[in-house]
Structures are given as C-alpha cells and as structure tokens.
C-alpha cells in the first residue's frame, strides 16, 4: 500500500499548490466568487461536470445499476439534455446576466425578498449536505485503505477549505479540472477492464437476455418490481422532468457566470454534455458487469449495503497493482469537487448578497473596500469549512441523530418547490416579479401534505407522485399569476423587461472585462499540474505487474500527460493572441 499512500499524498499536495498559486489572481470579490468572469470553456466545462457528481455516483447510483441495470440512466439522459440546452442558449443567457452569484440573478428577476430567501436557505442547508458527502467519502476511503475515519475526514475538509480560501473560484475550477482528468482516466480503464473480463460488448449485452437478469435489467420495469415503484414509466417521466427542471432554470446560473462570455459558456456546456454522455456509460457498465460476474461475492461480503460496494469491488478486482490509490483519488475528486463548488457559491451568497442587506438594515450604506470583502470571503470559507467538519463529526459519533434526517427531509420537501418557480421565471416573460412566493407556496402544499400523510397516516408517497403533484399545483398557480400579471406596477414590469434584455445582450469581453495575464496563464499553470500528476502515475510502473497491466498504467499516465501537453499548446496560442490584441490596441 506504500505506493497508494504516496500517490494519494502527492495528488492532494498538487491540489494545495494550485490553491496557493491562484491566490495571486484573486484580488477582489469578482475574482473570488466567479473567477473575474475570465474562465475558459474547458475549465468551466469540466467544473460543471465535476460539480454534478460525487462519490455517491460510484456508491449509491452504482448500486442502482447493480440492482436494476440501465434504468437509472434516465437521470443522466436528463443531465445531458440540460447540458445540450445550456450549449444552445442557457449558458450564454446566464453569463450575459453579468451576475456575480446565482442570488444576483434571482434578485434581478424576482426581487430582494426572493434573493434573501434563496441565499439564506442555501447557506443553512449547504454545509449539512456537504457534511454527509464528506462522511460518505471518508467512510469509503477508510474502508478501502484501512485509514482511520476521523483523520481522513478532517484532512479532506482542511484541503478543500485551504485551496478554496486561498484561490477562490480560480482554485475551485483548477482543482476540478485536475480531478476530472484523474477521475476520467481511471474510470475509463475500469470500464475497459470490466468489458474485457466479461468478454467484450457483445457478451456484455447478451447477459441482458439471461433469465437470471432479464427482468431486473429491463429499462422500464413493471409496477411493484422495485420499492417505491422505481424504474416504471411514471418514475422515468417524473425523474426526467425533475432533472430538467433544475437544469433549465435560473438556478443554473452559477455554472456559467465564470465564463469569459456567452460563447465560452456555450462551449463549456457542450463539453459537459460530451463528458456526461461518456461518463454515463463508463461509470455504470462496471457495476452491471459486477452483477453478472461477482454477484454472490458482493452480496456475501458482510456489508450493510453490499450493492453500494459493487463499483469498488470490481475495480479492486481488476485494477493493476498500484492503481488503487488512483481509484481512491477518483472518489476523492468526485466529492471534493462538489464540496468546493458548493462552498464557494455559499461564500459568494454571504458576502455579495446577505451581508450588504444586513448592513443596509443597520444604516450602513457605504460600500466595503476590496480588502475587507476579501477578508470576509476568507473568514466565511474557513467558518463554513469548520461547520462542515463539525456536522460530519456529529454524524460519526451520533449515527442515529435525527438532525441529518430532518435536514434532508426539509431539503426534499422545500427543494423542488423552490426550483420550480425558477424554471418558470426563465421561460415565462409575462410571469410577474411578485409571482415567486405564490408559486412556491402552491408547490409546497402537496409537498408538505405528502410528508404529513406518510408520518401520521402511514400512506407511502413515491418520489414520482410527489413531483407530479408539486408541478401540477405550481402550474395552476403560475396560470393564476399570469392572469393577474397586468396588475403589476409599471416599474415591476419594466424591471422584468430589463432583465430579459440584459440576458440577451452579448458580452463585450474586451470592454466589459478586458484582456489579462490570467487569460493564458491558466493554461500553463494547469498544464504543469496535470503533467505532474501524469508523471506521478508513471511511478506506479515500479509496482510489480505483468506487461498488460503495465500498459494499463501507461494508458492512464498517457491520457493525463496528453491533456497536459494540449493545454500547453493552447496556452501558447492564447498568449500569442493576447499579445497581438494588446499591440493592436
């Protein structure tokens, strides 16, 4: 295990170094919360992908593939559809709002009360969600590598908090990119080795007709085949609509506000689309093959939820000696990238949206200096990082504590009702500025009733039933709001028109942002970091392996090093273009 420990240690060291380096490009609030609006498409696109997955992708979702075959791909098909729409129009629209945070976009569309409601809710629930992800990742790492749970948990949180504090959004995007390369390379290899173990794609597909698996592996299941009527037609439609609702709404703004302009935002979303489509196959073929080849071994492993170990089981079974550390790094990457994105967005909401309103309520109207804003960003990041660790430790010591169940219940009961008005607010221009709360409370009614009905009357509600009733009530409320929209004040109507005009006005990067060293420096710095990780992987060749397994290690290293080389070439081109533009001006 020495090679695994060394690999993981140096990998985490690279992330820390990236955070420290990008500190020099983070001088004001815009830099800290959105990278100054100067991010390149490849950096934004990989960050979008990584923020959409976590270690749960390789545990909980992998267990769904192990038990039910390809049915869960409905979720990822909806994600791909959302990213495609982002490439066509959502990405440019959101970047062209000129916002710093998602809460800024919400304020300009629905007003200050909705901005404060959304920002405060996110700051309250975000750390608890991150703590649960941190606990799950730490438990996985301690189980696989035999490391003590609490030190692993604290170490991960300290690393994420450090680079998020040091480099802000730049560090978040840079580390997301490096982690994406690690995750993609190792999961591509696991998928290839799994297909090789089963005899190739034709043999893999033949198992879908095997009587032992045919019923479970139908794409659409019969009602009652799985708990909660999962994987039925109604489930598939409801889940698809729920995912699309979150993808095609104002709440998607945070993905794109860091891009240079609308064109870069569009290209970033198309990259996320390609990577998500690729990942949907690569990530879930191995747990299905694990069901075909190692079902008895996995189910008899003695774990509480053995299906959740399906991906790790087959990966450990097939990976060459020395690559286990890279598998753990991939799991770290999936969760750390979700944590750092959430942490940065919550800090942005605190400093950009919540604190100015609190100061205004106290009669303090003068703007904060850049130095003070940056200090608050650092303090808020450290505070939230510490809060995440405290919540995670509570979960370790009091595994039966109801706080987490309660928080998840609140998130599920309120989360969908909060997002539905955001969806409608983007697509219905006539929807008045005051309409958010009427639609929200209409959506909340069936959501709360489903919770009461389950707890008091023991009538089980499925996810799809709750989602359909929420959307139905929200749609009726929206129709009523549209009918009453003419009663809105002239100023309110003018504010809504201004929002849509601004959203459709292209960014003039040269005049609105301006060329800077970071435009090309991001290529060179991340190229060096990626190449460092690639060189580190080459050291795994020292582990005892046969020729085929050494070639597998070379593939992973070659994949990462090739990306690093391409970034260097792109950086040279961008630098030459930037210098030419400065000479012309």
Automatic annotation (TrEMBL):
Topology in membrane: Multi-pass membrane protein
Main localization category: membrane
BP GO terms, sorted: sodium ion transport
Keywords (A to Z) from UniProt: Cell membrane, Ion transport, Membrane, Sodium, Sodium transport, Symport, Transmembrane, Transmembrane helix, Transport
Catalytic activity: L-proline(in) + Na(+)(in) = L-proline(out) + Na(+)(out)
This protein's GO CC annotations: plasma membrane
Source organism, top-level taxon: Bacteria
Record's keyword annotation contains Protein biosynthesis: no
Membrane-crossing segments per the record: 6-22, 42-66, 72-90, 117-138, 144-165, 177-198, 233-257, 269-290, 310-334, 379-401, 407-427, 434-452, 467-485, 523-542, 548-567
Cell compartment(s), UniProt: Cell membrane
Any coiled-coil regions, as ranges: none
Transcription in keyword set: no
GO MF term set: symporter activity
Family to which this protein belongs: Belongs to the sodium:solute symporter (SSF) (TC 2.A.21) family.
Identification of the protein by name: Transporter
């Amino acid at each position: 295990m020495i090679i695994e420990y060394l690999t993981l240690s140096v990998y985490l060291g690279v992330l820390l170094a990236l955070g420290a380096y990008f500190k020099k490009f983070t001088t004001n609030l815009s830099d800290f919360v959105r990278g100054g609006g100067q991010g390149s498409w490849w950096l934004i696109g990989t960050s979008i992908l990584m923020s959409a997955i976590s270690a749960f992708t390789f545990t909980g979702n992998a267990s769904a593939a192990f038990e039910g075959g390809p049915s869960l791909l409905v979720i990822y098909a909806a994600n791909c559809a959302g990213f495609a729409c982002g490439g066509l129009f959502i990405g440019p629209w959101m970047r062209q709002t000129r916002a710093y945070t998602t809460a800024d976009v919400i304020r300009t569309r629905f007003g200050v009360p909705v901005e404060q409601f959304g920002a405060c809710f996110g700051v309250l629930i975000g750390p608890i969600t991150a703590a649960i992800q941190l606990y799950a990742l730490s438990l996985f790492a301690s189980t696989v590598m035999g490391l003590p749970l609490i030190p692993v948990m604290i170490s991960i949180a300290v690393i994420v908090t450090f680079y998020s504090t040091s480099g802000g959004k730049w560090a978040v995007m840079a580390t997301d990119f490096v982690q994406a390369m690690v995750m993609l390379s190792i999961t591509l290899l696991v998928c290839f080795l799994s297909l090789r173990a089963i005899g190739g794609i034709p043999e893999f597909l033949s198992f879908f007709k095997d009587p032992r698996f045919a019923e479970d592996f139908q794409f659409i299941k019969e009602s009652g085949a799985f708990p909660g009527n999962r994987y039925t037609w109604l489930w598939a439609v409801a889940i698809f609509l729920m995912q699309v609702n979150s993808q095609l709404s104002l709440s998607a703004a945070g993905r794109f506000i860091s891009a240079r302009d609308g064109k870069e935002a569009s290209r970033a979303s198309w990259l996320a689309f390609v990577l998500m489509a690729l990942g949907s196959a690569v990530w879930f073929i191995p747990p299905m093959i694990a069901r075909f080849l190692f079902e008895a071994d996995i189910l008899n492993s003695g774990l509480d939820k053995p299906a959740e170990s399906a991906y790790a089981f087959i990966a450990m079974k097939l990976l060459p000696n020395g690559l286990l550390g890279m598998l753990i790094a991939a799991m770290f990457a999936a969760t750390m990238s979700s944590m750092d994105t959430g942490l940065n967005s919550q800090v942005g909401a605190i400093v950009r949206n919540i604190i100015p309103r609190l100061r205004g309520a106290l009669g303090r109207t003068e703007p904060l200096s850049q130095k003070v804003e940056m200090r608050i960003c650092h303090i808020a990041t450290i505070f939230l990082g510490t809060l995440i660790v405290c919540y995670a430790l509570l979960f370790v010591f009091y595994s039966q504590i109801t706080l987490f169940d309660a928080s998840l219940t609140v998130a599920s009961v309120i989360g969908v009702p909060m997002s539905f008005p955001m969806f409608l607010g983007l697509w219905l221009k006539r929807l008045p500025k005051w309409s958010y709360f009427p639609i929200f409370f209409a959506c909340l009614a069936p959501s709360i009733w489903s919770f009461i009905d389950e707890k008091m009357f023991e009538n089980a509600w499925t996810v799809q039933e709750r989602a359909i009733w929420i959307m139905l009530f929200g749609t009726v409320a929206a129709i009523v709001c549209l009918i009453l929209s003419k009663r809105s004040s002239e100023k309110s109507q003018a504010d809504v028109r201004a929002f849509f005009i601004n959203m459709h006005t292209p960014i003039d990067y040269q005049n609105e942002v301006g060329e800077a060293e970071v435009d090309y420096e991001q290529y060179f710095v991340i190229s060096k970091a990626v190449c460092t990780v690639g060189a580190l992987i080459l050291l795994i060749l020292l582990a005892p392996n046969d020729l085929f397994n050494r070639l597998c290690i070379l593939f992973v290293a070659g994949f990462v090093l090739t990306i690093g080389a391409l970034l260097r070439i792109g950086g040279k081109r961008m630098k030459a273009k930037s210098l030419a533009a400065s000479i012309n001006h």
